[in-house]
Specification:
Elements: E1 7-10, H1 12-16, H2 26-36, E2 43-48, H3 61-67, E3 75-79, H4 83-91, E4 96-102, H5 105-112, H6 116-132, E5 136-142, H7 155-167, E6 172-177, H8 184-194, E7 203-207, H9 214-223, E8 228-231, H10 251-260, H11 269-281, H12 290-296
Parallel strand pairs: 1-8, 2-3, 3-4, 4-5, 5-6, 6-7, 7-8
Helix pairs in contact: 2-3, 2-11, 8-9, 10-11
Bound molecules: 3-hydroxy-3-methylglutaryl-coenzyme A (HMG) and magnesium ion (MG).
Magnesium ion binds near residues 178 and 248.
């Protein structure tokens, strides 16, 4: 049987905006996140504390963190690559931090300028200090279903990097289809292979919708019992260090499917759609989700 309830982690303000070329004003980000905070979402990844030269779109992470109206029912999380990023995040009183690395050597190097082996000693103290500060820590593994530089990634590679992160103390792991290449059979195969190797109830799935397969991949994940999914409203997003990575799975399309299937999310689709239309109005493009296109057409 499929799960009756699913947790959606809204990553649009981070994964979405990091790949938009139009500069969104800090005040507009704050207004948008406040709007998202009133939709019933329980988790918002609001920004990242990375180098502003690498991701200039999110250089205002601190102002955003301090400007938003924090809803006590929501976990506000930020991405941090190292101790400097963690310091910034802790200064703003985030609820959770997310560390990230890749199952692919080349993507890891291009994204965070380190080999996979060099990354663990960087993340170890970050995870420790975050936990000492009373924060939960999420881990991301990228390129789980394929890498733009290396092609196929084996389940062994994914299990190896993921178990190292669990050993370092992460509370949850999000498996990223960074460039949206996963197909449903592959998701089925990978989840079957990793089931006995990783703490399965601490896994989340993070699909990008580059080839329109994200919802199909969600369905297979639901059949495996996964109940946490990352998504970005309107399908905003991508990864600037992975060529061809377009938007995330759209939160609005995901919610529509789940609600139609009688799976609860706690999110009000109408309010979420309004938040999507708001951020769309600040970009010079139409957002790709079906829900946004339906609501935008005259
Ligand atoms: P680096 O150049 O190797 O850093 O970059 P470094 O440690 O050698 O330091 C160089 C300079 O950067 C120093 O300044 C540091 O202080 C500064 P200087 O002394 O030269 O003046 N610095 C920082 N400044 C601000 N914030 C920081 C920070 N750290 C060092 N946190 C680094 C390494 C990791 C910093 C860089 O590569 C970086 O910022 N990368 C970010 C990449 C990124 O954000 N990618 C997108 C997110 S991942 C993703 O989208 C995938 C995901 O969605 C899942 C999926 O879809 O698969 C999560
Ligand atoms: Mg992503």
């Amino acid at each position: 049987a499929l799960p009756e309830q699913v947790t959606i982690k809204e990553v649009g303000p981070r994964d979405g905006l990091q790949n938009e070329s139009v500069e969104v004003l800090t005040a507009d980000k704050i207004a948008w996140i406040d709007q998202l905070s009133r939709t019933g979402l329980s988790y918002i990844e609001f920004s990242s504390f990375v180098h502003p030269k690498w991701i200039p779109q999110l250089k205002d992470a601190k102002q955003v963190a301090l400007g938003i109206d924090r809803n006590p029912d929501i976990t506000y999380a930020a991405l941090v690559p190292n101790q400097k990023g963690l310091e910034g995040a802790l200064e703003t009183g985030v609820d959770e931090v997310s560390v990230f690395m890749s199952a692919s050597e080349t993507h890891n190097k291009k994204n965070i300028n380190k080999s996979i082996e060099e990354t663990y000693p960087v993340l170890k103290p970050v995870i420790e200090e975050a936990k000492n500060a009373g924060k939960t820590v999420r881990g991301y593994v990228s390129t789980v279903f394929g890498c733009p530089y290396e092609g196929d990634i084996s389940a062994e590679q994914v299990i190896d990097v993921s178990s190292r992160l669990f050993d370092l103390g992460i509370d949850e792991l999000s498996l990223g289809d960074t460039i949206g290449v996963a197909n449903p059979l592959q998701v089925d195969r990978t989840l079957t292979e990793i089931r006995s190797q990783l703490p399965f109830d601490q896994l989340a799935m993070h699909f990008h919708n580059t080839r329109g397969m994200a919802l199909a991949n969600v369905l297979v994940s639901l059949e495996h019992g996964i109940t946490t999914f990352d998504a970005s409203v309107g399908g905003l997003g991508g990864c600037p260090y992975a060529k061809g990575a377009t938007g995330n799975l759209a939160t609005d399309d995901l919610i529509h499917m789940l609600h139609e299937m009688n799976i609860q999310t706690g999110v009000d689709l109408e309010k979420l759609t309004e938040a999507g239309l708001f951020i769309q109005s600040k970009l010079d493009k139409y957002l790709p989700s079906h829900q946004m296109q339906m609501c935008t057409k005259e």
